[in-house]
Amino acid sequence: MTAFLDIAGLTKAYPGVVANDDVSFAIQPGEVHALLGENGAGKSTMVKMIYGLVRPDAGHMTLRGQPYAPSEPSAARAAGVAMVFQHFSLFEALDVAENVTLGMEKPPRMRDLARRIAEVSETYGLPLDPGRKVGDLSAGERQRVEIIRCLLQDPKLLIMDEPTSVLTPQEVEILFHTLRKLSAEGTAILYISHKLEEIRALCDAATILRRGKVVGSCTPREVSAAEMAEMMVGKSLSAPRRAATEAGPPLLHVQNLNLTPATPFGTPLRNIGFTVHAGEVLGIGGVAGNGQDELLAALSGETLSARGSVSLDDEDISQMGPDARRERGLCSAPEERIGHAAAPDMSLTENAVLTAKLRRGLAHGGFIDWRAAEDFAREVIASFDVRTPGPQVAARALSGGNLQKYVIGREMLQDPRVLVVNQPTWGVDASAAASIRQAILDLAGSGSAVLVISQDLDELLEISDRFAALNEGRLSAPKDARGLTMEQIGLMLGGAHDMHEAEVVHASA
Amino acid sequence: MLRLEKRPNPSRAWAIGTPVLAVILTMIAGGALFAALGKDPVEAIRLIFWDPLFNERVASFSRPQLLVKAGPLILIAIGLSLGFRAGIWNIGAEGQYIIGAICGAAFGLAFYPSESIFLFPAMVIVGTLGGLLWAMIPGVLKTVFRTNEILVSLLLVYVAEAILALAATGFLRNPEGMGFPGSRNLARHPGTDNPELIANTGMHWGVIAAFVAVIAAYVLLNRHLFGYQVKLAGQAPRAARFHGVSPNALILTCMGISGALAGMAGLFEVTGPAGQITIDFNVGYGFTAIIVAFLGRLHPVGILFAGLLMALTYIGGELAQLMLGLPASAIQVFQGMLLFFLLALDVLSNYRIRIGGRAAA
Lengths: 509, 361
Hints:
The complex is a heterodimer of chains A (509) and B (361).
Chain A: E1 5-14, E2 17-27, E3 32-36, H1 43-50, E4 58-63, E5 66-68, H2 73-78, E6 81-84, H3 96-102, H4 110-123, H5 139-151, E7 157-161, H6 169-184, E8 188-193, H7 196-202, E9 205-210, E10 213-218, H8 225-233, E11 250-259, E12 269-277, E13 281-285, H9 292-300, E14 310-312, E15 315-316, H10 322-327, E16 330-333, H11 348-356, E17 363-364, E18 367-368, H12 370-383, H13 400-412, E19 418-422, H14 430-445, E20 449-454, H15 457-463, E21 466-471, E22 474-475, E23 479-480, H16 486-492, H17 501-508
Helix pairs in contact in A: 3-5, 11-12, 12-13, 13-14
Chain B: E1 2-6, H1 12-36, H2 41-49, H3 51-54, H4 56-85, H5 93-110, H6 119-145, H7 149-169, H8 205-223, H9 225-235, H10 237-243, H11 247-271, H12 285-295, H13 300-324, H14 328-345, H15 347-350, E2 351-355
Antiparallel strand pairs in B: 1-2
Helix pairs in contact in B: 1-2, 1-14, 2-13, 4-8, 4-9, 4-11, 4-12, 4-13, 5-6, 5-7, 5-11, 5-12, 6-7, 6-11, 8-9, 8-13, 9-10, 12-13
């Protein structure tokens, strides 16, 4: 059997970094092939070359025995290659069918298109109403729009870039079911992820990249997740250790927190209440866009809330701004690193002043002590292994993972009494993620209260003492994290997003 | 094929190099313009850039004019640059300049014929406050009603001009002026005058204020938290809010500072070089200062040089009009070219040009 897509010696270099170095592998027809690697291993560059977004410097590809060198994505699509991106390109104000039309070269009539969307969504078990506004859809539903947009092109190779990062466990199940069905019909799937258990459950073959090179391949069902992780990282990872601590007195207390969103597609917070105790990690799970950003803003002080809704040490801080809260020991790290947690064009030293000026004494009488700021920036760089030439470098020059380490380190080293973090390890490689998680546990071990908001449920189960789920701006009652199963968590995350595939198929049949 | 590639770090060399390159390109394009008008381009460029400073016949008159014209431009531009860095667009400095001048002059004239040494400093304060309050109108409207400060501040210029016309022909008209429009001459009355401090240099209190403003702004932007917050708000508004900057307070502060400095410039002008409130004592410094602020890349030292350069093109432009009979509009096009090239080349400090279309990222 000849391979569907054969990749031989692909190389792509960017200034200062070789993203792909002589990469070769083959995808068979109907195969679910995993491309596995840490962030920065070169997975994205690889698929961009297959999809015609980036041209390789060297090497060649063969598609169904023919030389294949797409100069742009439309050429790739014409050859039967489709891709679902990690970040969706959808217009919130348009409905599903209109969004699908936008990607088409020769759009059919709207009525025919709506019928075809309904057909495809029924065939592949992807419940979706073509007439709904995208702004009202959950992340999982938005992904379905992207997938259906691809399926309408009848692709022979479907590329999926980190598809499950925004899905609830139940939505992941639906997606896998669809992908298996596609593969049974002969569609090859290139599946990019760093979630090992998923790959073991879904994929037939895996190619593992590290620093742009192929370091191994395996049949995921036959090896353990730990073995794959070792190949991916190049060393064995230790699970974070937690010191056994008794939960201390309550530090951060939130009750009846209600907020209306500032933007039309923002999420309102509805009657949120919880308490974080000293020495405790409270994990808040949930799919992005369910109020995580709004909750962080309400805790950091960027958004003020009704009197009495947020208190620290029994002091009402709901009407205080970020600086007053930091002064009292509440530090926070937002999800969006560029432009929110850090200013992209400012140096790391300048970014140190952003949050640490009070607790680290980086300003006296309104004047900034640049030497102290630089020392603090160096301290963060050294303690959190931030890979950068020095503190004078602009934040935008750092890779996402390195900047994340810097942002987390900046808050940690302020010795906060309460730390609130949103997506602490998003886009960070596995070993750095492990060290950030360890630092969170150490901080809790030293008597601080930590609130971790994350979409990564494995991460939350690993580090949380208690777990709560955020869904459409409502927070479930926190439960003891030990002993929670994925299924229970899935239910806490809200089964409301028409999870039950069978039901929908039944309804539309 | 030319491509632009974002630099990982902004280039310092280009940040300094682009204004120089822009001036050179302006000379070339402007020279072509003058040649097309049938004038000798080399002579026209020399008249604009060289003769005002170094030609013995005209320099004795034009050299002091350099500081007289640059002073208010720099003073206003420094104020504007803080707001521009923070993304707050006060386009109405001309109006704040006029109102500052009227308020200060009215205060001085109210005590006429006092010659107290406290009068002039008090007039400076009142003029400054006048500009500040005029700028508060777009500021407060923006913070309370989310109006667009560009439109409101710009339209208030025309309101200020109407008030100026009223003052010159009505409530500030010289009672001994035989019915002619215009106030008493403030520059020729001890106590209200803003004299030339060193003979034949053009140096007056307004120029000193401009230099002080340059230094103060430099310190503010490089060492003070307020300057840091201004830069942060301009570059990353969400990060500024996360840092703890209140957007409304920042709007009011930046509008206030720019209005105050414009008002101060107006007062120095009306008590010195202009001498009196007339219908058209303002000559567009408030608008030209916007160009100066950008020409100086919103950097205090850059603004100092940009103000001097702009003043030079004004003086030289007048000289070229006089000596070569160039139309005034040609000189304005020439000044426009300068801004155009500067802003167009700005891209080089953040991007580099790659030649050839190999592998787009």
